[in-house]
Amino acid sequence: MTPLHAQHIVPASSSTKIRLSLLATALVDALGGPTEFHRRFSFPPVTSMIPSSGFGLPKGVWTDDTSMALCLARSIASSNARGIQDGFDEHDQLRAYIAWWTRGELSAVGRCFDIGGTVSRSLSIYSSYVDAKDSLEKIKTEMNHESCSGNGSLMRVLPIGLAYWKSESKARMYARRSSTTTHPNEMCQEACEVWIGAIVKTMQSACPTTTTSTTLPEAPTERNLSKLDLLEYFASFPYRNKDLRDALSCAPPTGLDSSETTDRNTQLEAHYRAHHPILKLIVTTSEEITKRSKRGSNINIADPLNLPSESVLPSSGYVLRTLVAALYCFFVSSTFEDGAILAANLGDDSDTVGAVYAGLAGCWYAGDEATMGEEPGAEKDSLFWSKRVDEWKKDLVRRDLVEKVAEELVEFEARW
Q1: For a 10 Å CB count at each end of the chain, is N or C smaller?
Q2: What are the binding positions for Mg(2+) in this chain (predicted)?
């Protein structure tokens, strides 16, 4: 495994990051859809698009994760036409979700074939009230309990980080507010906030700012962000929710020698490998695989057959487990393809874990290079594109719709 401090973000324009992170979401959502609800290791490893027998769908169909993310993206992007300059409108977001749920708008197959229980209940509440303000308050009251701690708001929140990346405070605030439309539970709100904070830091590090932008970054992240820097962000975040804090935080090391940056990074990563829950799991898994392997140290921890068991890395619809599983896939791999395959082979809620992973990984790995198939050999130095990823792209159903909404968000972000 390549050290985290040696893995740096790929610089690119914000438009490229927006286009490819939304495309990535749809790709890994569709890749992981067929293994949803299956036990880990109960199916052959999935590395290409296959049909989803559970819903009787052909290969390449993305699910509610992508549909709801597109709903949110379009709501933000179309706000000027409704006279909302800043783009954020909870009521319009809910109306967009209802249009997808009842009429199949922004669905890969023209209908809603799957929806989470908390989402459907919240949309039902909103639909039953004449006064929209009253209905939103009812959702916040009725759905704000521990049993509503699913991943339905986390899976769709990506567009907020892509649209508002120049203002971390605003993006984090909107991330929390976007969760309250269906998942007002504090854990769900904070999961969305911390995730969008990571997207913002990634965008601020990777994307050059232009003089034509109306909003300049509040405090741009240091250029050449490393995965170790991103892990440090998650480890030091001031969590209010105890479960999130226990799963993602880690006390900083004491007596760290900062005289040389390289030495400091090596020491810090060693500290996290010994103490951070996710890095500790990666280390433990690698050690166990090495013991079992006849090849000694020549093992690939990013092989889906080398995933940890469900007991130590659950991938259920519980928002905390989805978040941890997505981060495991991100930190244990060094290319978009490797992490995507890991996520798709988790089973259980693999499509959602994959969609969440892909949003961050798309922001991280996407570069301004040509895609496969358009320029032979373009994949050579790309951490995002590969022959396999290009095949996923070719197999993706209604890719045109994903790309259309992405362009709408690109236009909004350029104006903002």
Answers
A1: N
A2: 63-65, 349, 351-352
